[in-house]
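Thread: quick sanity check before group meeting

JM: Hey all, I'm pulling together slides for Thursday and realized we never actually wrote out the predicted structure for the chain we discussed last week. Dropping the sequence here so it's in one place. If anyone has concerns about the input, flag it before I start.
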Amino acid sequence: METKSIELSGWGRYPRRVETVICPEQIADAVPPPVGRMIARGQGRSYGDAAMLADGLVMLTEQLAEVSELNEATGILTAQAGATLAEVIDTFLPRGWFPAVVPGTRFVSLGGCVAADIHGKNHHRDSGFGAHVDEIEIVLADGSRRRCSPRQNSDLFWATVGGMGLTGIITEVSFQLIPVETSYLMVQHDQAKDLDQSFKVLSDKAWDDHYTVAWIDCLAKKGNVGRGVLMRGHHARRNDLPDSLRGQPFAKARRQRNLGFDFPSWTLNSVGMRAFNELYYRLQGRRQRPFIADYEGFFFPLDRIGNWNRIYGKRGFIQYQCVLPAANAFDGMRALLEAQAAAGRSSFLSVLKRFGPQGQGLLSFPFEGYTLTLDLPVDDDQLLPFLDRLDDIVLQHGGRVYLAKDARLAAPAFRAMYPRLAEWLRVKSAVDPENCFDSDLARRLEIVTAAS
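JM (edit): ok, ran it. Output follows.
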């Protein structure tokens, strides 16, 4: 199969490197090389270096995207791993089906959903993507194909769910869709004046809904630290819709508009972000009565702008996402937000969510508690030391960083954050003793070294 060299990066566009890639057109060609190391790559929507390999081979799976017919009796859909959630939604939402779990973008491959064990606004109720996977097919280092599930080869299955592509090439995914009557959601917003109120509302069962999330003003200071707009919603039934929509309960997907240039580095400064945050807090916080929203605006607001990552300029950005256990989450989140505000670092998007119980993936990110997401431009040499300080706060409060968003975590911190690493390494050693499957992330975190 022909190879070529192209520049690759994660969605954060940091780091960027020229790497060697292959792009198989048939599932039969999705096999590891006879010598050397490789990593599979879907849509490149992990933010850092998880789907990159400096001196190895990167397999692009985007052409392995065939979608099989849905089993409407069970809601289980089987598709090749290169297919995206966007393709699934475009095909099956008009027929009344929606993925059980979606992240903040629909432009992610099904293989990537498994490898990162992605989560959504409903984790507190429905867990992560891996909990809704019925079966996968994976190509191992020796070229053999193995089907695994929670019932069959379960050790390999749970090492692959959240395993960042390091156990093999995921070629097929069977996963759960849920029935819906419309493509709309019934949504309600609430203002929270500070972090204390944000936590109280998120933990209030009377406020809870199928999907919940909070936008946080990360630059608010003093008594307003952690203020935000809390958003909840559920899939609207046809009878919930106004008369104008009941005849067409499934809206057509909106046209995406592409951003064709990099914003100047000074665009996202703290002064401009404070003004934006103030406006957003006031406008969105007023929408406290239930209203109808289309699924794209609720689940995937940034997908409307193609290449929105260019807003951060040529140097890119790092998305920092951590989770803290419920008992320590309030103090830890306050410390994180105070550290960011004190440093004057602007985050274009800051999100707070509540997680439900930990899943079974050995390296899966979520556990019961609260997660915070920050988008930070790579605009000066002090960003990485600042993020190291955030890691210290996370560790002090018993938390961890999401590998699918990571571009710079240190190996000792990773080992402290992921206590099931030893279990995962035993599975890795059994199915990939020569470490055929490797990545820049795995080397930086010394996962491959540990496996050796």
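AS: nice. The chain is about 25% helix and 25% strand. The mean pLDDT is 94.
JM: adding both to the slides.
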